[in-house]
């Protein structure tokens, strides 16, 4: 198998991390050089803007009894903050994608299994800005241009009621229903394969993933 980027995307609670790590183990056991990467988003250049947004009341963090935290951004209340955040988030995404994905993929010829990637970042951005068609804008197309042509993108999805039972942070996420709808919208728009994990065991989901990437 030629080195490629394999991206497992979808709402929180669908089992992406478990599946990504299982896949990395199987690929390495099969003699395929492979690395796991978490690439939902990284904040570096965004940090000053995020601090300003916090002071403006455009973001908040809710801490649950278990200690888990849920962050909410209300950038749609400010066109300036929305625009600046979108640009800075793209710069951050570009920077960390080069370091964590492109370098090992292109230079060291390793297959990279991404636990979340550009599509997940776009969903976060759509929720924060309430621009549900941002993927068709200039900044959205820039995000999408970061995905290598030979990438394999697989979306894990599940019903809202099932997801809320799996983790406490997902249970209390006020944006979960919206996120599920946006993921499905992206799947339809870009022809992304969806695997519904509602009634599938972990091993059965893994089998479907392997079939999808044609190992």
Could you characterize what this model shows?
By secondary structure, the protein is of the alpha/beta class. It has a single domain (5-60, 68-213), classed as Rossmann fold. The chain has helices at 16-29, 47-55, 79-107, 118-129, 138-144, 160-166, 168-171, 176-190, 202-213, and strands at residues 5-9, 34-38, 59-63, 69-73, 111-115, 152-157, 193-196. The chain has a 5-stranded parallel sheet, with helices on both faces. A two-stranded antiparallel ribbon has the order 3-4. A hairpin with a 5-residue loop joins strand 3 and strand 4.
Q: Can you give keywords for this protein?
A:
single chain; 215 residues; alpha/beta; Rossmann fold; five-stranded parallel β-sheet; 51% helix
What is the CATH domain class? Alpha Beta
Q: Provide mean pLDDT, rounded.
A: 95
Helix content: 40-55%
CATH superfamily: P-loop containing nucleotide triphosphate hydrolases
Strand arrangement, major sheet: 2-5-1-6-7
CATH topology: Rossmann fold
Tell me briefly what this model is.
The chain has a single domain (5-60, 68-213), classed as P-loop containing nucleotide triphosphate hydrolases (Rossmann fold, 3-Layer(aba) Sandwich). The chain is 51% helix and 16% strand. It is built from nine helices and seven strands; from the N terminus they run E-H-E-H-E-E-H-E-H-H-E-H-H-H-E-H.
């Amino acid at each position: 198998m030629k080195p490629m980027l394999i991206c497992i995307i979808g709402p929180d609670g669908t089992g992406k991390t478990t599946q990504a790590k299982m896949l990395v183990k199987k690929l390495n056991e099969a003699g395929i050089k492979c690395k796991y990467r978490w690439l939902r988003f990284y904040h570096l250049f965004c940090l000053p803007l995020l601090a300003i947004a916090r002071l403006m009341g455009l973001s908040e963090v809710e801490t649950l009894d278990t200690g888990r935290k849920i962050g909410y951004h209300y950038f749609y209340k400010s066109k300036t903050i929305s625009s600046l955040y979108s640009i800075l988030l793209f710069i951050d995404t570009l920077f960390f994608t080069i370091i964590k994905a492109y370098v090992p993929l292109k230079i060291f010829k390793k297959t990279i299994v991404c636990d979340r990637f550009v599509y997940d970042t776009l969903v976060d951005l759509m929720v924060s800005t309430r621009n549900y068609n941002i993927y068709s804008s200039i900044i959205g197309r820039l995000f999408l241009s970061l995905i290598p042509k030979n990438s394999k993108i697989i979306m894990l999805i599940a019903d809202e009621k099932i997801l809320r039972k799996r983790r406490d942070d997902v249970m209390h996420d006020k944006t979960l229903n919206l996120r599920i709808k946006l993921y499905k919208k992206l799947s339809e728009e870009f022809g992304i394969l969806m695997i519904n994990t509602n009634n599938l065991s972990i091993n059965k989901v893994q089998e479907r993933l392997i079939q999808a990437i044609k190992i």
